[in-house]
Amino acid sequence: MINLKFYTKDEWQEYSKQFHALVFNNSDFSDIENIDFACVVFDNDTAIGFSTMRVLDKYHVYMQYGGTLDKSNYTNLKGYLKLIEALKDNFLNITTLIENNNKSMIKLAMKAGFEIIGLRYKKGSIYLEHSIEVKHG
Question: What is the pLDDT of residues 64-76, one digit of tens each?
Fold first, then answer.
């Protein structure tokens, strides 16, 4: 069963280095990680992914860093969709940046309903900017 656990910025500090090391092979994001909250996705009691978020305004959340720990596409899709649905309950717009060579994450975002709305250049890499606009009512 897929479950989500949300963490405040302060609570996340205890887990941040561990999750970043597992996904990015880099555990020191302290100088650039500026978040409002984070979420870990669990399949039963096993963590399978995470995402950190910044609230840009009361309608818009930016999914900043994240990744999957489980290589099962089916499980990752279920977890990602559950996270997106939870964010849709509280925000009208969700955005994220995905490096252009991360094909599996781009496919996951597209399956979740994200649309590509732009390009960003950052530290010598190209990122695709993705967005979901939520229609309430």
Answer: 888 777 666 566 7
- Start-end of H helices in the chain: 9-12, 16-24, 73-88, 103-111
Closest by Cα among 27, 4, 6 to 16: 27
Entry field: residues in the chain: 137
Q: Which residue has the tokens 């939520």?
A: 134
Backbone angles phi, psi at 91, to 5 degrees: -135, 155
Q: Are 62 and 95 in contact (CB under 8 A)?
A: yes
CB count, 10 Å around CB of 112? Answer: 17
Q: Note the pLDDT tens digit of each residue in 94-132.
A: 999 999 998 988 998 999 999 999 999 988 899 999 999
Q: Which two tokens stand for residue 70?
A: 């489980």
User: What is the per-residue burial (b if ≥16 Cβ within 10 Å, else e) of 76-86?
Assistant: bbbbbeebbee
Single pTM value for the model: 0.86
